[in-house]
Amino acid sequence: MTQGSRIHTMIRLSAAAASVAVLSLATSHGARADDPAKVLKAMSDYLAGQKSLSAKFDSDIEVVTPELQKIQFTSSGEMKMNRPDKLRIRRTGGYADVELVYDGKTVSLYGNNAKSYVQADVAGTVDKMIDTLQSQSGAGLPGADLLLSNSHDELMANVLEGRHIGQGVVDGVECEHLAFRGPETDWQIWIETGAKPVPRKYVITSKTLAGAPQYTLKIRDWKTDANPDADFAFKPPADATKVALDSTVIIEFDELPPGTPAGAKK
Questions:
Q1: Measuring CA to CA, which residue among 46, 72, 40, 47 is closest to residue 58?
Q2: What is the span of the domain harbouring residue 8?
Q3: Cα(159)–Cα(166) distance, integer angstroms
Q4: Helix (H, G, I), strand (E, B), or coil: what is residue 190?
Q5: 226 and 175 share a domain?
Q6: Residues 6+ apart with CB under 8 A from 67
Q7: How far apart are CA 202 and CA 170, in angstroms?
Q8: Residue 197 falls inside a structural domain
Q9: Does 23 share its domain with 93?
Q10: Beta carbons within 8 Å of 35's beta carbon, 6+ residues apart
Q11: How far is Cα 35 from Cα 203, in angstroms, rounded to an integer?
Q12: How many domains does the chain have?
C-alpha cells in the first residue's frame, strides 16, 4: 500500500469512527432523563404568557407525484399577535399571496392573487377563531397550533411516544430537539434553549401518504414588543371581491397550485 493509499484509508476510518461517535452521542442524549413533554410545556407556557408576539417564517410543503417524485413548494411570511383576540398572518409563495386578519370579532382571509376575500363572524379569542376556521371550512393551518394558549395539550393530544433527541442549532441558535410519534403523523420541534423557549423549527411527517411527505416550518425574529391595534384592522382593497366562505374558495388560498394532491399537514 502506498503512502497516499494509507492516508486515504486513515481518513475514511477516522470519518467512520467520528460517525459512530456522533450516533452514540445522539443515542445517549435521546435516552437521558430530560422529559420532552416538560420541554414542550415550557415552550407552551412561555408563548401563552406573552401578550404580544411577532415573528417571521419560511415554510416548505412536500407532495409526492404518482411517479414517487417529491416536489417541494416554498413560501415565506410574518405573524403578529396580541392576546387574547388579535392576529395577522401574511404568507407569500409562488402560488398564493394571502393574508389572515382577526380583530376579535371578524376573521378575514384575503387572497391578493385572487383579488377576493372571505369573512366570518367569530367573536372571542384567537383560539376560538382557529378552531372555528379549521372545523367549518376544512382549511389547513399547519403551525397554528403553536399559537394556541394550550398548545402543549393540542400538540400532545395524539402522541404515542416522545423523545428528547439532544441539542440542535437552527439559524445559529442552540435548541432542544424533540421528536414525537402519532398514529398518522410524526413530528419534530426545535425549541430555543435558555430563558426564551420559542419554537425555531417544526417538521410534520405524514405516515399515511406514500413517500412520507413533510411540512417544514422555520421561525425567526421572535419579538415580544407591543403591536398597535391598528395592525389588526382589515381594509379590503377597492378592487377586491367578497365571496362566500366555503371549501372551494379556501383551496384557492392554499400553499399548493390548484389540483395538486395535499402534502404533509397536521
A1: 72
A2: 1-31
A3: 19
A4: strand
A5: yes
A6: none
A7: 11
A8: yes
A9: no
A10: 164
A11: 19
A12: 2
Q: Is residue 266 part of a domain?
A: no
Check whether residue 180 and residue 148 sit in a common domain: yes
Q: Do you know the residue count of the chain?
A: 266
Q: What is the CA radius of gyration of the chain?
A: 21
Instruction: Please tell me whether residues 22 and 108 are part of one structural domain.
Output: no
The strand pair at 116-121 and 241-242 is best described as parallel
CB 29 within 8 A of CB 167: yes
Confidence (pTM): 0.82
The pLDDT tens digits along the chain (266 residues) read 554 444 444 344 444 444 444 444 444 443 344 799 999 999 999 999 999 999 999 999 999 999 999 999 999 999 999 999 999 999 999 877 899 999 999 999 998 888 889 898 999 999 999 998 888 766 667 789 999 999 999 999 999 999 999 999 999 999 999 999 999 999 999 999 999 999 999 999 999 998 999 999 999 999 998 777 768 999 999 999 998 766 455 544 556 665 565 555 54
Q: Are residues 69 and 122 in the same domain?
A: yes
Q: Which three cell numbers stand for residue 235?
A: 381594509
| Within-domain flag for 244 | yes
What's the CA gap between 260 and 64, in Å, rounded?
10
